[in-house]
Design goal:
Chain A is α/β, with parallel strands linked by helices. Chain A is built from 9 helices and 10 strands. Chain A has one domain: Rossmann fold (3-Layer(aba) Sandwich). Classes of the chains: A alpha/beta, B alpha/beta.
Chain lengths: 272, 435
Amino acid sequence: MKLIILNDYDQVGEWAAKYIRNKILRFNPGPARFFILGLPTGGTPLGCYKKLIEFYRNGEISFKYVKTFNMDEYVGIPRNHPESYHSFMWNNFFKHIDIQSENTHILDGNAANLIEECDSFEQKIKAAGGIDLFVGGIGPDGHIAFNEPGSSLMSRTRVKTLAQDTILANARFFDGDMSKVPTMALTVGVATVMDAREVMILITGAHKAFALYKAIEDGVNHMWTVSAFQQHPQTVFVCDEDATLELRVKTVKYFKGMMHVHNKLVEPLPPK
Amino acid sequence: MPSNKSVSDAPITQFVNCRILREHKLQREDLWVREGKILDPEKLFFDEKGSADQRVDCEGLIIAPGFIDVQINGGYGIDFSQATDDVRGGIALVAKKILEHGVTSFLPTLVTSPPDIYHKVCPTSIFLLTHQHLLFLAIVSLTVNVLPEVKVHSGGMEGAGVLGFHLEGPFISLEKKGAHPEQHLRSFLSDGMSDLIETYGTLDNVAMVTLAPELPNSQSVVRELTQRGITVSLGHSVANLSQAEDAVRYGASFITHLFNAMLPFHHRDPGIVGLLTSDQVPQGRTVFYGMIADGIHTNPAALRIAHRAHPTGLVLVTDAIAAMGLPPGRHTLGQQVIEIQGLHAYVAGTKTLCGSIATMDMCVRHFKQASGCRVEEALEAASLHPAQLLGISHAKGILDYGGDADLVLLDDALNVRATYIAGQEVWRKLHHHNC
């Protein structure tokens, strides 16, 4: 695991965006060779998306040969609902860049057969050749995507009922009214994300600190599903100071000591 | 690639680098257009896997819905109320020129005129006329008609769209006739509507009628016109507030050039002006009011009072006359001669104003400056509000998905840089590198 500790939310977004940019540029995608990116939604990655849009506008990066797979989508709200994850991705990312619609994949929470929809999503990932980099966040209860506490660490894309904590956390997007928050979602499984060649988790804020502690300093446990990535060979955790509040001083010092090495990963690439 | 053609294979235009007026705010958003309508790009992306065929770089300009002028009597030498052989040509000329002012739809307005201006005299229609007129008809041969000549039609390269006629008079008050010719004023005899039809000949292609509600028998007329979908406006009237409120109850929804040609506001009887804050307006209905914001017809303080009292009802109108767009001097309006002095247009030999020569974009700028309102409010007074008044705000006066792509592109000083109708550029200001 690489643990990247930055000062604040904005720095996390910038570092993560640069990391993604460099990964795509080094991969050098083309019409026969797409870069496959797994993407999250929510407050945490917003800063990262803004920076990626900036890099696109500056001409540093193109998404023409990038395919995306989103982690999850609510069940039962209209696709154009302002809080659907389709709307989120359109408004915060897709509409600002040059990605082609047929290269984006988001689970359809209004599909006639939800199980078929989930299975078909797994097939599409396979057909694309698997995910090169899966970007995710972490819930206060330590979940990755909607893999709530108790989700199998071997799980695949499926329908999940949301935990109370998650509904509470999401209520702020539904006028603070918990009764308006969807209760079910389609989500990639823990194993689906584990299958990616590389995983990057973004964590910001003091309210995520305990989950981060459980994820990287405690054992692998299905009650804190992000802990599964301790067993992934290529994981990067990018966090701000506040998110480290529950970690041991020793852990923080160790990884801060490596920042000069890790920062090389986000330096601008030499021009071709 | 444009789309998977599942909905349409028409080309898609994306206006980028612009600020659009939507939901009462200027927002940094792209505007998408297909087949003359505003397109929902999210639906296009997810449903049709579509993207733009053509991008128009607006270089930071404002995109507002095209302006709608509900009171314009002519311009560029054309007087809609004057007898000519080429009514259609006259309206078309003005329609083309007002594109430069950002106007994409309008109501050609006819002031009080003799009956022959309104309708064609011909054998079959004699049966509809009363005895008094038979002799008159025997003498008058086929003369010009105006109303049957021009139909409601969409705009385009040829000019702004005609939404219908605005008939201002002749059923108005003698005391408040303003520049209208006294000899052609009329009142409602026994059955109001038949007097109306007799005068106008036809109500096809009529969008608005201005009348004085204190005229006896006006109630049934107001009600009937409203039922036919024609906007009834109160103006050139000495009605008190109570009479005005009655008319609103029967369906009247507009006030023709507020303050002008009506009783002044009085604190014990505010008259028609009192409609702005009347509590007798039926639930769910709005009384709109036209304002000529040319700096001449209304003192800026009065403009501000009206705006502050009822901001959502304010509709900018030009009330432009034939001399608009022409140099100073003498010109004809209706049956009278007028004189231009600077930005003023008087009934020749008097100091009575007879209409303005300000253009719509001038009015928008002046309104913003005089009232201190936000840019969005100034633009809506010339687009959204007239559309709401005419009951067409699902299609015009808005930049919502599915609406008509009638657009005006403006700089921050609200100068018109380009005008679009149904997504096609129909006018562009030269000597500027923009869209």
